[in-house]
Amino acid sequence: MRRSSQLVAAAVLAVAATHAAAGNSAKRVQAFARLPDWTGLWETELSKSITNAAGRSEVFSLGNLGGHPPYNPEWEQKYQAALTDPVAAEKQANSFKGCGVGSPEYIRSFPNIMEAPMVFQVVVTPEETLFVMDHGEVRHIYTDGRHHPGKDDLWPTPLGDSVGHWKGQTLVVDTVARTAGPVSIFGTGEVSEQAHFSEKVRLTDKDTLEDELTIEDPVRFVRPWTMKVHYSRVRDIDRLIPYDCEADRNPVIDGKLTISPK
Amino acid sequence: MTNSASKMRLELTGPTGKAMKPSKRPLALVATLLTAATASGHHSGAMFDSQKTLTLEGSVKAFQWSNPHCWIQLLVPSAGGPVEWSVEMGSTTELYRSGWRPRTLKPGDKVTVVVHPVRDQSPGGAFVSAAGPDGKPLGLPKKVDAS
To answer: Chain B contact for A101, CB < 8 A?
Structure first.
């Protein structure tokens, strides 16, 4: 009996040793060591601006990150028509909702989530970089050397398909197959499914992450559209707080946002 | 709904507290959406009159810790009986980072709440600030906005 116990103990130790040996390889550890430390929580300029008990910014201008979208004549005409349509403008101003019933899907899409009012966590590994948004979306940027899937294996999705590589301490990202639609949280531009997104993400100082985004769209743009988005480190919370959106009390009635009494 | 004059004060002020003139600019898509007077994480501020502030004094009926907005249901005395106001606040994360907690307010608490009222005259508004019976502000001081 005693001998059998010793044999079992020896077997357990052997299994444990095997598991220990299956840790990160020296090659992977070295790969980790070459990566920049973006560990932690970050937030967009808009998030930083509205982080108060009112949840609103009185002076923040959403600006126009990339300036005027470089539309071709056909899409410029549509853009200008929208600009001068007060009915459409009022309807949009009254019905815009970032989550809950009535919120448009594009709010949850790339690149909108990269400038939306969110806190997010960045996880950098040799194989991929993850942008984990507090609203639940996760961008997977694969850096293991793969290419985008082939034509038959790829279709448009709100986040598109992203692959990347490291150029020094800068993450260079290539994204395709993003669903057609607005590319800014408040609808400054619209792209087709053929849009191609290039990003250069890097630290500009220890507390600032910069994403230089260039959008090319052979269907709607006459030239590349470039903008820079900046993120600040979040230090006043120590965890990514889930942003569920289940108690929306702002129904849209007759085209206008209202407050439900309960 | 009749508002109690003794429990509610109406002031016409701008975001910085300075007197403001109503805008006469026509609505336009980009002008409205990109340089809106208020920006929120969830919806536009079009439903609120950011040029007006109301000071409400009442007791808390409920404090809803929820997303996309937290809410204070405030009972404000009036000649015709208490009027229930719905005060829209930020998200739970925004409140938490501003020093608020789910139990910062409880039913029956006496508070003074400043709001930007809704434009349709219903008893509701966007939260600006709040103070307890001792006059001390609730939560942390508001951070300086980015611009």
So the answer is: no
pLDDT in tens, A145-166: 999 999 999 999 999 999 999 9
Contacts of B146 in chain A (CB under 8 A): 45, 48-49, 57, 60
The count of C-alpha atoms lying within 13 angstroms of the C-alpha of A155, restricted to the half-sphere facing its C-beta, is 2
pLDDT in tens, B72-117: 999 999 999 999 999 999 889 989 999 999 999 999 999 999 999 9
**Interface pTM (ipTM) of the complex?**
0.73
Taking CB atoms and an 8 Å limit, are B42 and A53 in contact across chains?
Answer: no
Look at the domain B54-131 and name its fold.
OB fold (Dihydrolipoamide Acetyltransferase, E2P) (2.40.50)
| Inter-chain CB proximity B41 and A256 less than 8 Å | no
Which among B55, B64, B116, B90 has a CA at the least distance from the CA of A53?
B90
User: Alpha-carbon distance A128 to A144, whole Å?
Assistant: 7
Residue spans per domain, chain A: 2-54+61-237
**In the CATH scheme, what is the code of domain A2-54+61-237?**
2.40.128.20
Q: How many residues does chain B have?
A: 147
What is this structure's pTM? Answer: 0.77
Domain ranges, ordered by start, for chain B: 54-131
DSSP state of A33: H
Structure tokens at A43: 């937030």
- Across the interface, whether the CB atoms of A50 and B41 are under 8 A apart is answered yes
Nearest to A187 among B33, B50, B124 (CB): B33
Helical segments of B5-79, H only: 29-34
Q: Is A26 in the B-facing interface, judged by CB distances under 8 Å?
A: no
Q: Give per-residue pLDDT as tens, B11-48.
A: 333 333 333 333 322 222 232 233 333 445 566 677 88
Residue B33 sits at the chain A interface (C-beta within 8 Å):
yes
